[in-house]
Specification:
Shape of chain A: elongated
Mean pLDDT of chain A: 90
Strand content of chain A: 25-35%
Radius of gyration of chain A: 24 Å
Number of domains of chain B: 2
Helix content of chain B: 55-70%
Shape of chain B: flat
Structural class of chain B: mainly alpha
Number of strands of chain A: 20
Number of helices of chain A: 8
Structural class of chain A: alpha+beta
Number of helices of chain B: 13
CATH superfamily of the largest domain in chain B: MetI-like
Order of helices and strands of chain B: HHHHHHHHHHHHH
Oligomer: heterodimer
Largest sheet of chain B: none
Chain lengths: 360, 298
């Protein structure tokens, strides 16, 4: 086995030309990623997008079909999981039920034949950071879901590695706990400064945690950029529709002389962030970038349903036979059938080519 | 106080212990239990009687003069074929057959099941399918080839040979049992152990085996009773000095010369059946406890 050094030392994890096939089924198609030291990367996608598969390839739990994986400049493509310098946290916690919390934390270290005092020192440190000192001698069965997930994170922590891998770690927790642990993971990352790769299907987790998000579909990275960039400038229709809830509204029309034509309406594109040219196009506008006034003038829609969420409400409208969602912090109640006149913030809108589905 | 209408149902639904349904269930259960226990009762009672008392008939009546002499004879001096040293030789033979057979078959089958469930290798599906076919072939078909095989290996007629036969014939069903059990354990546990630097054997002995206590108990019950109760393999694959208890029992009961000692026969039969009974009683409790322990997911 050859260990060649990568020139750029600031790269913590590099994936080059990664491919994975199970028989005739190609799960990952040429995945490339360069991840800097201390970056928090979220792999986001629906089920079957290949996000967990990439994580398992990084961990060495799946044998890849083609490509290379470097961790800290070391080619680990053929290395065993334990030799890669990674710690992993699983969705189902995967704690060893017959061992105490201490036993769970010590298991990997004992396998690595570390001296006893070193093991004790690392467990103490991890327990202090994660505040699990009180139940070190309990069995996992006697812990709550949140406590178990902490122990699972601890098991990665004691390994003293540079790269942490999280495989949907919060999916088994209830909504409140999930939000709490999300913040804790963010704090942990700030405190430790490790490189973290985090798999989730939850866009809120992705938006709040990530330095950069890799959005995947059918084993291909659609966009690999900061959460802000992905939200503001989605590269294609899929990304635009995936991020945001309720999803972005899409209006089919055409661009003519700097205006967007939707049915009989002419929407000026002045201030649009891009270089649209004349022709068929799809205008994507987020529910939160649309404002409304009571009335029938211009682009107007009828209220079908109002979802009140306390701080804000979502209006589901019918815009010339098409569904349209609008988010507003105005708490006016609109009965069904109310006509609203809409206006868009074009500087935050997106235009897509209907054929290639790419952003214009 | 809330406004509860006290007419019509309110609160907990009343349930009577003595309902028509319960009466039917309990009387049927009692009848069936009696039906199954009567033969055992007759056996115990007869084994405690002297031969003259037995000749008086009345198989249901309790012994007038209870004697343990038939039990002693069955154990130490009843004639089985040529020897007249009772069942004790057969008992120890059976122990020497059952213990290693149970240990080896379960050990090998659990490793098989673990490998098939967690370490998918090329052809593992085919291997498993072939093993399953083995579970459905009546083993009488394989006796003759087995005799030849043992003869060629030079262990025909020995205890080693019989242990080997039991281990092999236990393999399909036990492997199926363990494979299915291991596939129910979360795959992530296995992955976590690999990240923690454990290999094939480490994961088996330190993660999987401790978690499979409920399955081990089931396998022990299954194998121990099957092998203890086996007659056919015992009589085919061993020499008379290694006959298991079941074969000896048959030889005692089916002796055609002399007086038929019903009391000794009954005592011998109970003695032979005692071991599987004991296994059921002891491990049955363990079994329930094992399942309860396994129910707490980590």
């Amino acid at each position: 086995m050859m260990h060649q050094t990568v020139a750029a030392t600031e790269t913590s994890l590099a994936i080059r030309g990664l491919q994975l096939s199970f028989g005739a089924i190609q799960v990952l198609k040429d995945v490339n990623m360069e991840i800097g030291r201390g970056e928090f990367i979220v792999l986001l996608g629906g089920s079957g997008s290949g996000k967990s598969t990439i994580l398992n390839c990084i961990a060495g739990l799946l044998d890849i079909t083609d490509g290379q994986i470097f961790i800290n400049g070391r080619n680990v493509t053929w290395d065993e999981p334990k030799d890669r310098g990674i710690g992993m946290v699983f969705q189902s916690y995967a704690l060893y039920p017959q061992m105490s919390v201490r036993g769970n934390l010590a298991f990997g270290l004992k396998n690595a034949r570390l001296p006893k005092d070193e093991i004790a020192r690392r467990i103490d440190r991890a327990a202090r950071i994660l505040q699990i000192e009180e139940y070190l001698d309990r069995k996992p069965g006697a812990l709550s879901g949140g406590q178990r997930q902490r122990v699972a994170i601890g098991r990665a922590l004691v390994r003293d590695v540079d790269v942490f891998l999280f495989d949907e770690p919060l999916s088994n927790l209830d909504a409140k706990l999930r939000a709490e642990l999300r913040v804790e993971i963010k704090r942990l990352h700030e405190k430790l400064g490790n490189t973290m790769v985090y798999v989730t299907h939850d866009q809120i987790e992705a938006m709040t945690l990530a330095d950069r998000i890799a959005l995947l579909r059918h084993g291909v990275i659609q966009q690999f950029a900061s959460p802000d960039e992905i939200y503001r400038r989605p590269v294609n229709l899929y990304v635009a529709g995936f991020i945001g809830s309720p999803a972005m509204n899409f209006l089919k029309g055409r661009i003519e002389g700097g205006d967007f034509l939707f049915n009989a309406h002419r929407i000026p594109l002045a201030g649009y962030d891009g270089n649209p040219r004349d022709g068929e196009a799809i205008l994507g506008i987020r529910p939160e970038h649309t404002t409304c006034t009571l009335g029938n003038g211009g682009l107007s829609a009828a209220v079908e349903l109002q979802e009140n969420m306390g701080a804000e409400s979502v209006l589901h409208l019918s815009l010339e036979g098409q569904r349209f969602a609008l988010r507003t912090s105005d708490d006016t109640r609109h009965p069904e059938g109310t006509r609203l006149s809409l206006s868009f913030d074009i500087s935050r809108a997106s235009l897509f080519d209907p054929q290639s589905e790419l952003r214009l | 106080m809330a406004d509860i209408t006290f007419e019509g149902p309110y609160g907990r639904r009343p349930r009577s212990r003595i309902s028509a349904q319960n009466i039917v269930i309990y009387s049927v259960l009692t009848l069936v239990a009696i039906y199954y226990l009567i033969p055992l009762y007759v056996m115990v009672v007869t084994s405690l009687k002297g031969l003259p008392e037995i000749r008086m008939g009345n198989i249901f009546s309790p012994p007038i003069e209870a004697t343990f002499e038939p039990w002693a004879r069955a154990w130490s001096s009843a004639c089985t074929g040529l020897n007249c040293d009772g069942l004790q030789r057969g008992f120890w033979n059976s122990v020497r057959i059952t213990v290693p057979s149970v240990v080896f078959s379960i050990l090998i089958a659990s490793i098989n099941g673990y490998a098939l469930a967690n370490w998918r290798f090329k052809g593992s599906e085919v291997f498993f399918a072939v093993l399953m076919i083995g579970a459905f072939i009546p083993y009488q078909v394989m006796i003759y080839p087995m005799v030849i095989l043992l003869r060629e290996l030079g262990i025909y007629g020995t205890l080693t040979g019989l242990v080997l036969v039991h281990t092999i014939f236990g393999m399909p069903i036990l492997t199926l049992l363990f494979r299915n059990y291991f596939t129910t354990l979360p795959e992530e546990l296995f992955k976590a152990a690999r990240v923690d630097g454990t290999g094939f054997w480490g994961i088996y002995f330190r993660i999987m085996l401790p978690l499979s206590v409920p399955m081990l108990v089931v396998a022990v019950i299954l194998q121990a009773t099957n092998i203890w109760n086996d007659f056919l393999f015992g009589v085919v694959f061993t020499r008379p000095e290694y006959y298991p208890m079941t074969v000896q029992l048959n030889n005692i009961v089916n002796t055609t010369t002399g007086v038929r000692e019903y009391n000794v026969n009954m005592a011998a039969t109970i003695l032979t059946g005692l071991v599987p009974l004991l296994i059921y009683f002891v491990s049955g409790r363990l079994f329930v406890r094992g399942i309860a322990a396994g129910a707490v997911k980590g």
